[in-house]
């Protein structure tokens, strides 16, 4: 009784211009869970950037909400082959969070409550390419979708957009995160179909 | 969403091993808990199978199916102990 969930591949598919290769359009927002959903009380929420020399910059929830926020409308592409177009988020740009961080590192590891990790090159988090979002579709981000706050790096496959984020570690060398260590691609560009290692 | 138990791994693991790995005993790298693979808590994530220790919830085993390859990541287990047939 092989239980291999191939995502939502069995559903009716729409082919649409503007989708990366191998993707189909979905209108709902599938939830993929690799473990129990962490419930993080806002008074215990924090986000910490740690540089390659160990210097830390930390925000609590109140400090985080006081940062300049942006509205973002973007397409998202999951490696399980669904894409969702024109999703709307509100969050804080990584440009804002990294503004006063002194680093010479080229790589980052994103960390989450619950232990999830994913690696993203630093340059992919800069220049309005990544946000920590706390609203989706005008509502507070639900725990199932990564609330109170999740990373959004929409130009990469969506596993790089970590749910329940609590930190970012800057690294001199690239290292695999949770799914990358188990066979997924180190970078994950949907337009190049970089799904698995060696793609 | 709730996990299945590790018995649901049997089909996938049969593609890799000539023995039924769900009866093997794992030792969790996180807490040292040891029990049958069938007792792991299995999260059938769309990207792969994630089997967690029922004692400490650490990930013991991950399996990813690519179209042409299967990846089995066992860094969360200190060892697997497999009974030999006929003994
Ligand atoms: Zn354990």
Automatic annotation (TrEMBL), chain A:
<feature type="domain" description="Oxidoreductase molybdopterin-binding">
    <location>
        <begin position="35"/>
        <end position="179"/>
    </location>
</feature>
<dbReference type="Pfam" id="PF00174">
    <property type="entry name" value="Oxidored_molyb"/>
</dbReference>
<protein>
    <submittedName>
        <fullName>Molybdopterin-binding protein</fullName>
    </submittedName>
</protein>
<dbReference type="InterPro" id="IPR036374">
    <property type="entry name" value="OxRdtase_Mopterin-bd_sf"/>
</dbReference>
<dbReference type="InterPro" id="IPR000572">
    <property type="entry name" value="OxRdtase_Mopterin-bd_dom"/>
</dbReference>
TrEMBL record, chain B:
<dbReference type="InterPro" id="IPR045423">
    <property type="entry name" value="DUF6510"/>
</dbReference>
<dbReference type="Pfam" id="PF20120">
    <property type="entry name" value="DUF6510"/>
</dbReference>
<protein>
    <submittedName>
        <fullName>Uncharacterized protein</fullName>
    </submittedName>
</protein>
